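Sync notes, pocket subgroup
Present: LS, DG
LS reminded everyone that the earlier model was apo-only. Rerun requested with NAI included. Inputs:
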Amino acid sequence: MGADHVRRLARSVAGARVVAVADPDRARGEAAAAGIEGVRVHADALAALAEHGVGAVLVASPDHAHEEALLAALARGLPVLCEKPLAADARAALRVVEAEARGGRRLIQVGFMRRYDTEYRGLKALLDSGSIGRPLMLHCRHRNVSSPPHFTSAMLISSSVSHEIDAARWLLGDEVTAVTVLRPRPSAAAPAGLQDPQLVLFETAGGALVDVEIFVNCGFGYEVTCEAVGERGSARIGDEPAMVVRTAGRALQDIAQDYVVRFADAYDREVREWVAGVREGRVAGPSAWDGYAAAAVAEAGVRALADGARVAVDLAERPALYR
Ligand SMILES: NC(=O)C1=CN([C@@H]2O[C@H](COP(=O)(O)OP(=O)(O)OC[C@H]3O[C@@H](n4cnc5c(N)ncnc54)[C@H](O)[C@@H]3O)[C@@H](O)[C@H]2O)C=CC1
Ligand SMILES: O=C1[C@@H](O)[C@H](O)[C@@H](O)[C@H](O)[C@H]1O
């Protein structure tokens, strides 16, 4: 993801210049920076932050490394676009929120890129218009071809479903208050011990229900769909992104194989809008509070997965900065 963003910042976003790249795996850092003039490659993220000319930071390290980079960027007053999840767990995410709130201004945007996807934006506008009535339910599917080797059963929720948590809060304008997780028999295609797929159910403060099928070793494609059911209609996105070819008695359609393809436009728009905002001295988009709220819901989900019970979400008080 980091290499994709470096390429995006260097090649397709106006108003940004990549001056430093950090990766403890030097070969990966060098590969990400290859062909970009004037970039210095570091093994240490904090050394990259201290590099002369750094005016903003994009964090795409593994989840557990986000907190340290975020706190260092906040200490330097640097705006940050941080890949989701904001931090590895809710407590770490809350520490980041508290540090930003102490500084008294928003510097962090979280990389929940679905808010920048044309279809998701269309669905949000439709729901806000009230034309299908009050939303009652969201039915979501989130399928990956395969999971990376380090993926755990908890990460299906904390990493993958974190997108649906944010999308549901944003689309419905409502907080998730409780989570239940059902466990179908694991797919034989999933690595041994991985609970994949899972069926995750959210209840919201306003009384809506959200169900999410998360299946990260489905083998056949990257699929993200969402159907909103309102009092007077329904709307569904994510089904038909590609051309349909009819030939020899068949209808054929490519299925994207990963998020880099499916959400390419959304990542571009996300980074473009972030850079434009930073140049004007403002940070918008999903906030550190949104990142914390998603982490708190995910934490309840991980407990629900372990206990097989419905778990209430424990949300801290929202600091004034995010009201
Ligand atoms: N918005 C989205 O759709 C997606 C977001 N992500 C998020 O992006 C982040 C990175 O994920 P991937 O690229 O899939 O992981 P990855 O494992 O492919 O790459 C992570 C890179 O970070 C490096 N790294 C490790 N510790 C570091 C540190 N302290 N500072 C700087 N670099 C460090 C590693 O050497 C590796 O090159 C994760 O937080 C993940 O959740 C990942 C995929 C899609
Ligand atoms: O954020 C992402 C990954 O980290 C996660 O592992 C995938 O399941 C998601 O589809 C992708 O968007």
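DG: The chain has ten helices and 14 strands.
LS: The radius of gyration is 20 Å.
Action: DG to write up.
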